[in-house]
C-alpha cells in the first residue's frame, strides 16, 4: 500500500489538515483490516491557538505526544471514556496536529457495524450506517482504536494513513462516494477558546454524508 511517510506530516498544519481529506485511515487488528476515507479534519496550531491543548506552552503527561516527531499518533479521552485521534504535524517540539473527525467506511464493514451496533452491516438501518464513523469518537470505536496506539507512529505499525492504489481499492466492500468541493468552517466544541473559536480550521467534503456537522462558511477548490 502507498502509506504516507513522515514527510507528509512535516508541513504546515492547515495544509496537512486539508490534504488528509481523501486519504485512507487503515487499522490492521487481530487479522482484520478496517478503514475508510477521511472526510473531515480539524487543525490545532500549537501554543498560540487557544483551542489547542498546549495553548500557552502547556506541557503535561497527556500532551507529551504533541511534542513528538511529525506523524506521531496522539489519542486523548473525552468524557473519561471516548477517544479522539490526531496526527502530529510540523516538526518535533512544535506541538501542532490534526484531529481526524470523520471517515467514510469502506473496509471491514461488518467489523465496524458489530463494534458500534452489535449486528452485521447489512442489518443496519440507514441512519445507523451514516452514524458508524461520523465523528471522532465514533470512528475510534468502529476501528477498534485503543489508547495503546497513543504516541506511536502512523507508519510501520498496525495503523496508518495511505493514498489509494490498486491494492487498497481492491479491499473496498462498497463503492466509495465521489467527493467534490471542500468546505472550511469553525471547529466544533471549542466555544471557550475566545477568538480561536472563530478560526476556519475545520475542513470537510461538502457532499459527503459521513461528515459529523455541516456548517458551511466558504468553499475551497478540491
Automatic annotation (TrEMBL):
Its EC number is 3.2.2.-. NCBIfam families: 3mg. Keywords: DNA damage, DNA repair, Hydrolase. Pfam families: Pur_DNA_glyco (PF02245). GO terms for biological process: base-excision repair. GO terms for molecular function: alkylbase DNA N-glycosylase activity; DNA binding. HAMAP family: 3MGH. The keyword DNA repair applies. Signal peptide: none annotated. It is an enzyme of class 3 (hydrolase). This is Putative 3-methyladenine DNA glycosylase. Belongs to the DNA glycosylase MPG family.
